[in-house]
Amino acid sequence: MVQDAVAIDNLEFAAKAAAEIGATVLVEPVSGAAGYPLKTAAQTLAVVEKLKAERGVENVGFLCDLYHLAANGDDVAAVAAGDGGPPPTARSPTSPAAGSRGPATWTSQVCLPQ
Predict the structure, then answer these.
(1) Of the chain's two ends, which shows fewer C-beta atoms within 10 Å, N or C?
(2) Residue 8 has what DSSP assignment?
(3) How sure is the predictor about 64, in pLDDT bands with cuts at 50, 70 and 90?
(4) Closest Cα partner for 91 from 72, 112, 75?
(5) How far apart are the first and last CA of the chain?
(6) Residues 83-109 pLDDT 10s
(7) Cα–Cα distance between 23 and 107 in angstroms, integer?
């Protein structure tokens, strides 16, 4: 699919630019956008692994936003347990960095691998 190929090319380009300053590009599954192609941890990790295996990109990772994973019906407990590898960055539904307009309605207690 053309969209997938363009996304991989653009992520590779972004990662190479980020590498120049020692940064990592994080790929995030999101909810609320019907056409967005990455909704689960498995889908997102597949993109990250493709970049690493096929393009040699090492400074790319999975941003584990627990709200979006739960909203999309992903198995948050399995993701938090490290199934598929621990994420380099995790964000909870109530994180101020998320820029939410109000309190999150999803609640759960999970322990991310250390």
Answers:
(1) C
(2) H
(3) confident
(4) 112
(5) 36
(6) 655 554 555 555 444 555 444 444 444
(7) 31
- Write the CA distances from 81 to 26, 29, 51, 61, 76, integer angstroms: 19, 18, 24, 17, 8
Does residue 114 register a pLDDT over 50? no
d(CA 88, CA 23): 12
DSSP 60-103: EEEEEEHHHHHHTT--HHHHHTTTT---SEEE-TT-GGG--SS-
Looking at the DSSP bridge assignments, the partners of residue 55 are none
d(CA 95, CA 53): 32
The CA–CA distances, whole Å, from 95 to 7, 28, 60 equal: 27, 15, 22
- Percent helix, strand, coil in the chain (nearest 5)? 40, 10, 50
Distance between CA 95 and CA 31 in Å, rounded? 16
